[in-house]
Amino acid sequence: MAQKADGTLASIALSMVRGVDAAVVRHIEECGLTPADFFSLSDNALADALGMRRQDVWNEHVRDEAVFRARQELDQISRYRLMRPLFLLDDDYPEALGSVPDAPVVIYVLGNCKLDRLHSVSVVGTRKATPYGLDFARRIVEELAGYFPDLMVVSGMANGIDSAAHIAALKSGRDTVGVMAHGLHIVYPAINRQLAKQIIDAGGALISEYPLGTTPFRGRFLERNRIVAALSPVTIVVESDIRGGAMSTAYTADSYHREVMALPGRVGDPTSAGCNLLIRRGKAQLITCAADFIEHTGWAPLNVAVDCSRRNLFPELDGDARIIYDVLRQKSDALTIDELCVRTGLNAARLLAELTELEADGVIARHSGGRYTAL
After folding, report:
1. Which CATH architecture has domain 120-297?
2. Which mean pLDDT values do the consecutive 10-residue runs of the chain (375 residues) have?
3. Range 54-63 contact pairs with CB under 8 angstroms and sequence separation of 24 or more
4. What pTM did the predictor assign?
């Protein structure tokens, strides 16, 4: 006789049975069975109930082993404050994630963040981000936060663009969700442990489909990306090479019929090659600022006028302004005043005057230490 497993135990155990995915869970429900029934029925009775051949059904040994592992998992979860498992068919399982065909059977959530939001955006990009990309990731989150008080920012907790998006959401007082590629007992990369704590303390959440004790490896990061893509109606790719996790997230979002937007970059710059490709192939809409985002999505800001001042990404410039802009566009790293003086041949006074105008026009960005990049 198979073991009995009720409620949360049965739900977690179901997620631990090899071959049980979202489609199987939905089929079990359609057949009038509960997760508890799945584990209590004999092999023959389960096969009959699911319309399967006896040799194809999950035998009692397999199901009992899953229940045993689920009990261990529940025992570990009880040691973590604010951690809870959400089953695919639960009312509090995020609707956006549950709507995709390959939704996780169970996700583990650490934090109190409400995961269903009218205004949620996933922001992804390379770990090897340039100042151009990092500045845009921060700026787009800050701009959208100003328009949408309920904004939730989703990303993958990696270094580079992901971290910049999470931090910008925290600084803007908006909830942010980090999707992990391993169990929630660790934070990877370890350098983001403090960021993870800040996310939880600020009312955000960390989520994962993997049980506690699961370690990171390459394949799990690709699996993780589908959750990032599914949780939001819009995914923004800030910087990416032709190949990489951000590109897989973008293509997955597109396959889910989600909106994809990408920040264009300089031709020949590897960190922008993926974004440029997405735009060229019609897989992503071009984005330069919140105004582009709002125009494309149709989201209605709450009693706030949309600032369109940054929309001209490639302005018509001439004279000294063109010289400065071209120098900055040729460098992925931010340049100091001294470096710009050498490269442009302009004196410091003239250079500073032009830089002030270009920054006000939204053509360039100023960074800490008096460094500049083109936008």
Report:
1. 3-Layer(aba) Sandwich (3.40)
2. 72 96 96 95 95 92 96 93 94 96 97 94 96 94 95 97 98 98 96 97 98 92 96 97 94 96 88 94 93 92 64 63 84 86 88 85 80 84
3. 58/17, 58/19, 58/20, 60/1, 60/2, 62/17, 62/18, 63/2, 63/3, 63/13, 63/17, 63/38, 63/39
4. 0.81
